[in-house]
Amino acid sequence: MSTLALVCACLSIAMAAWLGQCLFFRASQHYRKQITEHAREELSDLFVFIDTTYLWPTLVCVAVGASLLLWWVTQSVLFAVCVGGVSFVLPRIVLSRAVRKRQRRFDLQLPELLSSLSGALRAGAGLSVALKHIVQDASPPLSQEFGLVLREQRMGVELTQALNNLYQRMPSESVELVSTMLIVGTRSGASLADLLDRLCTNLRARQHLERKVEVMTTQGKMQAWVMGALPVVLLLVLSQIDPLSVHLLHSTSVGQAVLATVFALECLGVYFLRRILAIHV
């Protein structure tokens, strides 16, 4: 009877291990496909065209290397696994941040574009000709995005569709206003130069208000960084004052659970602070 129970237990463990392996393989394949497609889309939005085939093997090597190094330094399996997981998520965060930064820089260039475009239209130039001359002297990302709009027009794409494609690549309220203004102005036959001047004034006032809000929330952001870094600094100080107690945090299961709880609370606090300080104008 005991032999039968032992055989059943072994079979159950083997079946659970096989199912876990299959689920892990499917989840890794799904995440590999997802992160590769996401990286390709984000890089294309940044006008960076590289082969992302070797992205997943590179991430695996970096995650395994960082995990082994941290495990060798701290002798903590929990920290090693956490660092390995962060290594897989970090590229998506970096790319998303780069795309948002490029979007912000593009929005800041729009009032200057509208002002120059209004002056060119008042001088008698057509919309496409004025855009061509302005784009040639502009800096990225505005020159890249409107240069693509002009190339699409030369290939036979209507201005409406080209501007809609621009909004799909740069989905912001400012781009939507500019695209709508150009479409409505060209269709209605109204004074497009006057409309562009008014929109330029509104965008400048909005950007001024956004910078004012950013300055006013700088103190809160600095306090968030200080409060977030305080536990790490205290841990480093305690490791010099009382290394034995700090070693217990890395070597015991209770200490590792405490560190994991502190890390989770830190991430939760940073998330809520970012949501509170993210004021949309």
Please describe the structure with a list of short key phrases separated by commas or semicolons.
elongated; 0% strand; 281 residues; 11 helices; mainly alpha; single chain
Strand content: under 5%
Structural class of the secondary elements? mainly alpha
Beta strand count: 0
Please tell me the overall pLDDT: 79
Task: Tell me the number of helical segments per DSSP (H or I, 4 or more residues long).
Answer: 11
Integer-rounded radius of gyration: 27 Å
- Global outline: elongated
- Poorly predicted regions: none
CATH domain class of the domain at 108-205: Mainly Alpha
- Helical fraction equals over 70%
What does this entry look like structurally?
- This protein has eleven helices and no strands.
- The radius of gyration is 27 Å and the shape is elongated.
- Helix 3 runs antiparallel to helix 8, helix 6 packs antiparallel against helix 7 and helix 9 packs across helix 10.
- By secondary structure, the protein is an all-alpha fold.
Concise overview:
This protein is an all-alpha fold and 281 residues long. It is 87% helix and 0% strand. It has eleven helices and no strands.
